[in-house]
Amino acid sequence: MQTTTGGTQVYRRVGKVRFDVDGHPAEITLYESAEQEDLFVPFRDATSGKETYGAGRYLEVERPKDGRVVVDFNDAYNPYCAYNPEWSCPIPPGENWLAVPVRAGEKDFSG
């Protein structure tokens, strides 16, 4: 994955989650890395750059139990680079750019 400082970080695709937002279908990819226990979900949505941080937000998702995962967008958070441009943050890949608005989780701030 490309990062905000021009580098890359290595993640592996481990699954997809399909869901509806207000009746509109959506899909995101789950990733894993050697550094994280939980699965990583970087995403952008229709609120990015308007109501939420422009470069996207992140979620951590527990590994599957009985073949299922729980994705709770209320836990979506801004990456560290939203607060300090010196941080190198993964940029959500195009496959996790949602056309639907996700009006849950951390919002944008005026810093």
Q: Based on CA inertia axes, which overall geometry fits?
A: globular
Distance between the termini: 27 Å
User: How many structural domains can be distinguished in the coordinates?
Assistant: 1
Q: Mean pLDDT, rounded to whole units?
A: 93
Largest sheet: 2 strands, antiparallel
- The count of helical stretches stands at 0
Low-confidence stretches: none
Our estimate of the beta-strand percent is 25-35%
Which secondary-structure class do the elements indicate? mainly beta
Oligomer state of the chains in this structure: single chain
N-to-C order of helices and strands: EEEE
Rg measurement, Å:
14 Å
Q: Which strand order does the major sheet show?
A: 1-2
Number of strands: 4
Question: What fraction, in percent, of the residue positions are helical?
Answer: under 10%
Primary descriptors:
26% strand; mainly beta; 111 residues; 0% helix; single chain; two-stranded antiparallel ribbon
Task: Tell me briefly what this model is.
With 111 residues, the protein is mainly β.
